[in-house]
Design a protein that fits this description.
single chain
Amino acid sequence: MSNNFVRKASVGAAKYASGLFRSYLMIILALMWFPMIVLVILSFSERAMLSFPPETLTLRWYFEVFTDPQALPAIFTSLRISLIATPITLLIALLFVYGLDRLEFRWKPTALFIVILPLVIPGVVGGIAVYQFSEFLGIRGFATVVLVHVIVTIPFGMLVLLDTLSKFDRSLERAALDLGANELTTFFRVTLPNIYRGVVAAALLVFSLSFNEFLYTYFVRGNNIVTLPIFLWSNTAKLADPIVYAVSVVFILTATTVLLLTVAITSIRRVSQF
């Protein structure tokens, strides 16, 4: 009888712990997402003077996003910068990581550490550094912003590609070389097709980071470059303007879409099974 009592008590304790953890998880998720949900709801408010909850809903502000003389150019500027910076970052990161994975040299760990180090440098410090560097060279503007985006996103692209190459079966390359293929043919016909998921994941991550980048851009952009994050920052005093909320929702949807594409392409099923 005592064994049955202990068994029932254990089952009851497990159910209680499970319920407690689920409640804790729901509270954390609510704290994380409630501000975003409020923002989304306010973006559908019909009145220009916002109140929560809105009395009536409308899509008017989303249509105005694509006709606004400031918001639309900011969106296209962010897209242009990201679409230019992403392939440059990807090429640099892939060449560096491929060489790092294939070559053996004394300072290999140090080289990797130096490349990854910018990830832990505070953004303000990095922003001041790139600002002083651009002032020293006397260059500011679109090209400088693209260059800074490349510098900022390279470590992230390298981390994804390093993980991808570390899981690649190099015996496939050796087999291709034994069959007479040269190293360039082996890379494009064997290596790249087998690591393309990681390459695409790195590209999507780099694009998302570039599209969302604010701090470094703010320091080096000059007066004529207004990206979407800069536009939102410049209009923080107009938080009663629903178009700012609509632009913010577009911003969130873009980042979420890129994340979902990354998950879909790389077949990361653990996220959905958690």
